[in-house]
Amino acid sequence: MINFEKTLFINRPRQEVFDYVTNFNNDAKWQKMIESVELVSGGSDVGSVWRYKLKFLGKEIESEIEVTGYNPPNSASVKSSGGPVPFENLYTFESQDGGTKLTIAGQAEVGGFFSLAEGMFKKQFEKQMDSDADRLKQVLEAS
User: What does the DSSP assignment read for 114-133?
Assistant: First the structure.
């Protein structure tokens, strides 16, 4: 089991950051390993399901993500329901200094092919998470 947490400050209003992050169609714009996102059912609210196609460590992965919590503009949570790395994420949004403090916390259970190299997986995952957080900040602050 890998636990992770990333906090960043985005110089945009909380509602704007919340709306962007919880519109999961945007994930491919700021998360490098995501190749495509498709809405399966619902929207952004609880019970909605999104299908992701990703590429990580040279492996193509398909996974479905279910929205498990939706409390605008304070928090949202998702969990995967497929793929070799089941995970849960909690996004927390706080107003701070005229912008937004975003915390992404979660856990992932490494299985299948990735369990053979859990240490390498964790290191690469953390590096990717840092890069994605930087990209999210750039995209939102440029708008």
Answer: GGGGHHHHHHHHHHHHHHHH
